[in-house]
Amino acid sequence: MDYALFIVIGALTSFVGTLAGGGGLIGMPVLLLTGVPVHQAIAAAKFSNMISSFSSFFVLLGEGKIGWKQTAFIVPISLGGGITGGLLASSLPEKTMTAIAIALLTFALSLQFFRKKMTQQRSAVFSKKLYAPLYGISVYDGMFGPGQATLLMYTYLSTGLDYLSAIAFTRFQTFISCFGAFATYLYAGHVNWHIAPFLALGSVIGAQVSVRLAQKLKKEHLSLILNIVTFLLIIQLVFKMIG
């Protein structure tokens, strides 16, 4: 096993994923190309994402971008969605999930360009209207989840949150949904402990670098990164679906 390679894969995946989402579409194909079975690759990705997302969330928690009380409503939604998605992982073909990802990401990107400028309203995050989309995204994350974090970023930004707070909520929800999904893969015996810890180590490194970089970038630059990554995700998914 090339442990250094798994660390590099984890770092790159987490770096992109923390800033704009979509890191899984970098890490997952590379893992498969190295010969890792698909269920083991997904299980390792969920484990590493669980660890790295909490580490980046913890940094933003210390910076005051989010509080523990604000995250309380996310826990049952994300945990239930992650577990549901993990259990449903084998029931839908990959092409169907890819088509869903393309549709959702295209819709999210179009909203970013056409929506009116919103004011900063942290309380909007707790609207009950968000429960259904947040649960749906967590289910999608538990099943496979390409672009899951990107969709969460758009969802939280649409409430008027600033970019760093949106990252904080996204990373916390990712931690919870990945925890639920990982539990199902662990129960099914799909976790390869010769891969998952090294992928997680790299993910923590990538997450810590990116979350600190995000605090130094202007809002316009962060929004541009999110839109570019989203567009590239859509292109990659289209080619994957028709390939």
TrEMBL record:
Keywords in alphabetical order: Cell membrane, Membrane, Transmembrane, Transmembrane helix, Transport
Transmembrane segments: 44-61, 73-90, 96-114, 134-157, 163-188, 221-239
Localization: Cell membrane
Superkingdom of origin organism: Bacteria
UniProt entry tagged with the keyword Transmembrane helix: yes
Xref: InterPro entries: TM_pro_TauE-like, TSUP
One Pfam assignment: TauE
Cellular component terms (Gene Ontology): plasma membrane
Membrane topology according to the record: Multi-pass membrane protein
Similarity comment text for this entry: Belongs to the 4-toluene sulfonate uptake permease (TSUP) (TC 2.A.102) family.
Protein name per UniProt: Probable membrane transporter protein
Species of the source: Anoxybacteroides rupiense
